[in-house]
Design goal:
alpha/beta, 13 strands, Nucleotidyltransferase, domain 5, five-stranded mixed beta sheet, single chain, 2 domains, globular, binds zinc ion
Length: 327
Amino acid sequence: MQILKPSYAAGVDLGGTTITTVLVNETGRLLSQTKCLTEASLGVDTVVNKIVNSIKEVCGQAHIETDQLTAVGIGSPGPLSTKTGIVIDAPNLNNWVNVPLRDLVQKHFKTNVFLDNDANAAAYGEFWVGAGKGIDNLMVITLGTGIGGGMFIDGKLYRGPDDTSGEIGHIPILLNGPLCNCGNRGCLETLASATGLVNRAIHSLRFGVSSLMMDFCEKDLNKLTAKMVHEAALKGDKLAIELLRETGFYIGIAAAGIVNLLNPEMIIIFGGLSGAGEFLFAPIREEIKKRAFPTPAARVKVVPAILGNNAGAIGAAGIALMEFPPQ
Ligand SMILES: [Zn+2]
């Protein structure tokens, strides 16, 4: 009987603030992990060195050599090209433009390195070993400062020819809504991201609606965060509950479109706001039921992500193993 050698992959989640790196085996089991500050302002070389050292560190923790890695995956803010491995433009990384990140890291390893965007990496983590494990058709919606996503059709990550698919945050929801970073008006991101939620909260609070949120931010609206809105909602604050419900309402409108378009089995909500529970999930489900065709609406499950902060790094490793499978 042939005994298969175990396979290892390192995954890196390169964030604007933190670099999270993990080592997993071929089934996605987490073997070791490390975190460090990105400090993108210190330059590309510094960040590349930190990535390389973090990969060496997770291998060291698990007592394996980097030569034993089957693949290395990196999830980075984009836009980027998975084909050339170049980060085209990343405002979150001290305005990187055309940085050949894949090749800069590749120089340090014999193992193949693969670069994908951070939203796809987090989505892949949930698809591979998270809430979507075993499900072939699903959409992951990432709620953070912005809104991103990743979609899986018939068990495959769908990137599109230019690596720009899954941009659910830029689905137009309000005809003349707030101006979006992309230049359009009324994109989902302007209304339902953490930033959109805080902006709507500030708008209401300026009108003098009484709320616990004013105490939480010590009456300084510049200090208000999405977490404070959630905390106020948990204490029964009517305005905060309404703001979260409205967030779910907007996401639900976009989700109803996705349900009609893709007939997914599951929609996974990922990111800080996904902890808002039923305040957020009930209106999402309600809008899907109200607006989508009955058959796909009855099938789709809307659930929170389960991997937490490691999803991006685990997913980056998973994508690398998919691109460079063990021989
Ligand atoms: Zn937009």
